[in-house]
Each structure stands twice: as structure tokens, then as C-alpha cells.
Amino acid sequence: MSRVHLVPEETSAALISHELAYDAVRDAFVAAASPDAKLFPVVIGHGSDEANQFTLKSGASTHFAGVKIGTYFPTNDLRGLPRHGTAILLLDQERGRIGAIVEAAQVNAYRTAAADAVATDALARPDAHVLTVFGTGHQALYECLALTRVRPVSVINVVGRQPERVDRFRAELAARGVDAATRATSAEEGCADADIIVTATTATAPLFDGTWVRPGTHISTMGSDSPGKQELPPDVLDRAGLYCDLPSQSLTIGEFQHFRGAPETVTAIGSLLTGTHPGRTGADQITVFDSSGIALQDLYVAQAILSRVLAADSTAD
After folding, report:
1. Taking all residues of the chain, what is their mean pLDDT, rounded to a whole number?
2. Cα gap 104→8, rounded to integer Å
3. How far is CA 77 from the centre of its chain?
4. Burial of residue 168, with CB atoms counted within 10 A of its CB: 0-12 exposed, 13-18 middle, 19 or more buried
5. What b/e sequence results for 230-269 when a residue is b if at least 16 CB atoms lie within 10 Å of its CB, and e otherwise?
6. Catalytically annotated residue among 38, 57, 68, 229
7. For this structure, is 68 an active site residue?
8. pTM of the model as a whole
9. Pick from 125, 160, 227, 294: most CB atoms within 10 A?
10. pLDDT tens-digit profile of 139-153?
11. Does residue 1 surpass a pLDDT of 50?
């Protein structure tokens, strides 16, 4: 009988990299654009304490099938533990058992940022070099780290509500080797200056005025993943090219739940990557990528990590 492979958090965190995540997520987006791929409805639940939430995202492609369980437990603050947790279950498709369990809290930060990087690489102007980030948390940091790998970012504007958190965020970017100039800015200044805007917050209302966004800006919205969440003003969506990981999901629980136009104008990023959609139409077009997260991203990243673990095991044997 085949055994269940367990990849603990310490192992997956040691193996993940921006390169691995980028390649796996790009492959996942391409797979998601295939008619053979299936992505099933998201389940949003909570623990015995309703403040503690979890999400189940599942899917299947010609290669992988499985489930990603993401947890958000604010009560962990009292224990000095991270709020977010992630576990990815890869199915043994021959036997119907769990083939592998990959603990992936740190991996999830890379995976989410990689989705942004893949989309930004496909949509942002080649000369884009001023990045404005809304948010000063863990995920916002990884967004910046990933984007500096796909565009020649020379300036990072940081928009945050608490000056001390903005200062810590800027110091952490420097400690991670980011050589772009970083500065604290207001929302209006940040938008007016930006070639690329990234929002990585838990907001439930627009973070800025749509008139502040310059023509040609690319925007990635990373925080909306449940009903009621919102980071962008709807008028920006009305005048932009709209892309996402999965249109049906984005229009339901992602940022595009606030889009007032025709649903068919929302394009899966995989269609652009496979060449079936042309992408940006000109240097002055505003483009928006909404990432609500799809299971195939997690499954492809988990499989890439598992493959490295198995390769190392076979070498050791």
C-alpha cells in the first residue's frame, strides 16, 4: 500500500522560492484556461469560534486534483502565533486516497505573490518602474519582492494607516535586499506617481479615488476573496481591461463582484498567457488583475515542492 507523503511546514518553507512559485503558478493559469480543468465552488466556513475562518478551494486538471485549506484565526494573536495557515491535499487519483499533505503557510505567501508577478509581467508596460503598494503586512511585502523580479522597479511608494508600520515595512524591504528607493506616501500621491499599483489589504471599501489613477497604470488587487471585500473604486473597473484567475469566482467573491459592466468582458489571465487573448491594447490603457486565488495554483506549487522532496529522498536512498 502506498504511503501518504507528508511535507511539513519547515520543509516546504525551505524549498519554496520566487522562481519555483512563478513557474508553477504560470503553469496553473495555463492549465486553468483548458477545458479539461475544473475548479469547484469555494467553501467559506468558520470554527467553533466564529471569528476563526477557513476556506476550502478544490480543483482538478489532467495532472493533479486536490484541495487547499486556508485558515484565518485572529485568536492566534493571544498565542503569539500567525493568523494564517495553509494545508494542501493532493489526491492519489488511482486509489482515491490522500496522496500527499503539504503544509504551506509560508508557501502561500510566495504563491499569492507569484500570481501577481505572472499577471503583472503579462499586463504592465515594459518600462513600468514606479510601484505603489497599499498595505504593510506580510503579504504586501511578498508582493513587492515578487514584482521587483519582473519589472525594473526603482521606486516603491508605501501607503499605510500607521506610520510606524510603514517605517518597519520599508526597513524590511531594505533588509530583504530590495534596492529601490522606498518612501511613505498618501493614497493620492501614490496613485498619481504609480506605473503599478498593488493592493494587499482586508478592506471593505475603496482605498483610493479612481480619478487619481494615471492612464497606462496596471493594478493588481490581491485582498478581495469573500463577499463584501473591496479595494478598488468601481469607476476604475468601468474604464479598464479586466483580468483575473477565474472569472466566475472573481465576479462572486473577488474584486469584480463590484463590477457594473458585462461579465463576459472579464478575461481569465490564462487566456492571455496561451495567446487566445491579446492583452493590453495600448500604452494608455489601465489594466486590472484580480486575484481571489484558485486551487490549481496551490496544487501545482505543492506538486513542485513534493517532486523536490521525492527527488531528494531517492538521492539519499
Report:
1. 95
2. 8
3. 23
4. middle
5. bbbbeebbeebbbbbbbbebbbebbbbbbbeeeeeebbbb
6. 68
7. yes
8. 0.94
9. 294
10. 999 999 999 999 999
11. no
